[in-house]
DNA sequence: GCGATCAGAT
DNA sequence: CACATCTGATCGC
């Protein structure tokens, strides 16, 4: 049942948004054709720019079958939003689940905001808008202030670009080139726009690539060169200089398989140990600890140490706080232990890399913790040699690019399919990421420290210090409220979200300040804003061994970051790098450029008052995009109450917050989850629901993948089906290829560990063109 | 019945 | 591809 005018009238209306009246009759309105756009746009430039060719989406739309054979039809349902229909027909948010995952599914909010459409009374809306959305968490206010304080220092929030957007000449670098072979409307472009750069990128890189191949022997760069220039197997260290490239791969792959098999054999137990009892299965690894305790005359704490699964490695890094947390509340015993521990550390610092063989490494092969093996290749060479290839920083990269299931055959044409005999789909991918070190991926271990980063999928008793770089599912996955493995370190914003959404008690959360060195377990730790999503951090670890490790988490390199003095003053030994877009094909524009594009596109279409604009976002992420749209256009954007609650955690100023409204009548720009925009099917559903109020939907999908492979040089895409237009805009919260390049150049690490190893076979080559010295 | 985990989806 | 997420099934408590 469509919303009637009467219904609309009875809802309270806001004057905030003035609908332009100069548009043609709504009946006139044709589903945005290129001509129409051009002729009506306030900015001819923008409209011509928008004239991307309309292509058929590649993915066939089909309903998917669940495992049970049930039709999995995406739909907007009450259940999706986690609210309840009340007796009177009104709908209320289900408070008990306000922050349940589904509750944040803003895309499903249409039922909520348009209850009459689905047969509810208007009280519903009142229920909604009158919903108590005040957090009531005063205890956080200090923390939030702290966040705000960081604004001026170059945090996520600092990149307010409003003034630049308003004043600067519009750079239509994106969404302007049509299919890629169209000529860009000449007058409107300067010759040296980013677009040109984009267009030239591929050829340039190809050339570069060629040079590399000839000059340096690109195929060999996947392997480690030792100091004498011999090529070593990244796994066993054997000299393989004399082998052909293929033979080298074969050799390496065999090694991987061996290591993997070993890791499988020994590592299966820890994960399964719930069933067999945590203690007995690997009691031996605690025996040294227990003996040590006994020698100190503290046998009575044996139980605690076993319960917390403190093995010898973990022991070395326990702090007084840890001991207290474990339940050793008496000061005397804690003193005794910490003193004994400091003695231990002194000893072990003499033998620098000497972490004892890891718990699950029964084979003698160093199977864990990132501090070993890998470092051997670059050990001692803090100075970066000139013309070092990027893959020189990826010891064992050959192992990563290889499909783990392709065993030991050399294959460049292996394609995407993984042999059925082994893993399939995502499982296989995970194995790619996690291979090499048994269970714990290399990138989550910080060499020289007892720390893990974003490794909650691999919780173990051998670690007490868990860092979380930001609050995205793929980084906190595995973290549940029953977490009992020590302390979690993260930013204020992340801590707040972790506490709220997962229910981790504050006692387990340690907030890390920004731009300020602190000491944790004998390691200096400094955090910087990662410019990824709110609360995201880059972490610098300076362990006693002098080999600084910089872990970027997910990050987008930006000017402010380049200005940080640490990167110049501190020698970074190991860089754990977000390599999501470490491929020349990903060279998207600056965020502000994309934001400007979105703003202009909205303006171009806004002559039609019956246009609904949708902007995609994540639970956390892409805020800057819709906030800037709101600020520049001076229009509020609609968010659901649940989303607003999240936004309130992110440290935005009161001034910024006023651009958000939970009253959808106040805005024709709605913020929705990205996946709502993923398919036209869903968009059509939205369109149907809004049939009375809107005749056109313009959706923006902000994603770095907008520039991916199949899409070639088209820098942003416009799709249209009937009265629905969807733009894929290259708004990325990860570093582009060239930004990665700049960052690596700036940091000049001796060693790089990629945190994303999901590149196909070809990208190895692409990576090699990442020359440091260029 | 609930939470944790995983497989399979967009 | 998969940025990050959702959904359903399964298992253990």
Automatic annotation (TrEMBL):
Which residues lie in Polar residues bias regions? 31-54, 350-385, 402-411
**Family matches, as InterPro entries:** DRMBL (IPR011084), RibonucZ/Hydroxyglut_hydro (IPR036866), SAM (IPR001660), SAM/pointed_sf (IPR013761)
The segment annotated Disordered runs over 1-73, 345-389, 402-424
Q: Which Pfam families match?
A: DRMBL, SAM_1
Locate the SAM domain: which residues? 284-347
The record ties this protein, via SUPFAM superfamilies, to: Metallo-hydrolase/oxidoreductase, SAM/Pointed domain
Query: Which GO terms are recorded in the biological process aspect for this UniProt protein?
Result: double-strand break repair via nonhomologous end joining; interstrand cross-link repair
**GO terms, molecular function:** 5'-3' DNA exonuclease activity; damaged DNA binding
Family to which this protein belongs: Belongs to the DNA repair metallo-beta-lactamase (DRMBL) family.
Spell out the protein name for this chain.
SAM domain-containing protein
